[in-house]
Amino acid sequence: MKLQLALDLVNIPEALEVVAEVQEHIDVVEIGTPIVINEGLHAVKAIKDAFPQLEVLADLKVMDAGGYEVMKASEAGADIITILGATTDETIKGAVAEAKKQGRQILIDMINVSDIAKRAEEVDKLGVDYICVHTGYDLQAVGKSSFEDLRTIKSVVKQAKTAVAGGIKLSTLPEVVQAGPDLVIVGGGITGEADKKATAAEMKKLISQG
Ligand SMILES: O=C([C@H](O)CO)[C@H](O)[C@H](O)COP(=O)(O)O
After folding, report:
1. Separation of alpha carbons 94 and 164, rounded Å
2. How far apart are CA 198 and CA 53, in angstroms?
3. CA distance 26 to 190
4. From ligand 1's centre to the CA of 57, what distance in Å?
5. Where is the Orotidine 5'-phosphate decarboxylase domain (predicted)?
6. Disulfide check for 83: which of 9, 62, 132, 162 has CB 3.0–4.6 Å away?
7. Can you name the residues that pair with 166 across neighbouring β-strands?
C-alpha cells in the first residue's frame, strides 16, 4: 500500500517546500488539478526534477484527447496520469495505449460516476493501472466520503490496483487501511496540519502496519 501526497492549493515554490518536508514518508506526489490549471505542466516537471526518487502523478482529470494529454504529461515527467471514469471508453483506450508506449501509468478517477460497480468492471477490462474512488471537495463539504465506494470497487475490480481519495485524515485512515487499497491519497489531511512531517510519518506507519 502506497501513500500519495496530493498538492492542490499551492504554487510551485510552496509545493517544493512541502515535498521537501515530507519526502521520506511518501511514495507519490500528486500535482493536483488546481495547480495544473494555475501553473501548467511546468509544476510536474519542477517536482520530478527536484525529487526524481518519488513517483509524480499529474491530476489532469482528462475527459477527451486521452492519448495527446498523456503524451504531454509524460514529456513533463509524470509517472501516473489521471483520466475520468465518466469519459468514453475511446478516451481511456487512447490514454492507456499512449501510457504503455511511454512507460507511464493511468489512474481512473471515478469522481461523480453514479454506478461505481458497473463502471469499475468496465474500465478494469481496458488495461488501466489504477481505479480510484474519489469524493471531491464540493461533496466533502456536504459530508460525503468514499469509504463505501472503496469496498464496492474492492469487490469487483480484478486486474487494476485500487485507490481512494477525498478528505482522508489521520483519524479516518485506519478505516481506509482496513479496506486494503493499493494507494491512499491524502491532501488536506497532511497539508492542513501544523506538523506535516509528523503527520505524514504517522500515516506511513499506519499504512505499513496495514
Ligand atoms: O483531486 C482532488 C480534488 O478534486 C481537487 O483537485 C484532491 O487532490 C483529492 O481530493 C485529495 O485531496 P483531499 O481531499 O484534500 O485529501
Report:
1. 24
2. 21
3. 11
4. 12
5. 2-203
6. 62
7. none
What is the atom index within ligand 1 of the atom nearest the CA of 166? 14
Residue 121 domain boundaries: 2-209
Cell of 36: 495544473
DSSP character for 64?
A: S
Structurally, how many domains does the chain consist of? 1
- Report DSSP letters for 19-41, one per residue: HHHHGGG-SEEEE-HHHHHHHTT
In the block, residue with C-alpha cell 526518487: 53
pLDDT tens for each residue of the chain, 210 residues long: 999 999 999 999 999 999 999 999 999 999 999 999 999 999 999 999 999 999 999 999 999 999 999 999 999 999 999 999 999 999 999 999 999 999 999 999 999 999 999 999 999 999 999 999 999 999 999 999 889 999 999 999 999 999 999 999 999 999 999 999 999 999 999 999 999 999 999 999 999 987
Q: Tell me, using a 6 A CB cutoff, whether residue 181 lines ligand 1.
A: no
The x, y and z cell numbers of residue 117, run together, are 460497480
Q: Is 57 in the pocket of ligand 1 (CB under 6 A)?
A: no
Contacts (Cβ under 8 Å, ≥6 apart) of 197: 21, 22, 25
β-partners of residue 35 are none
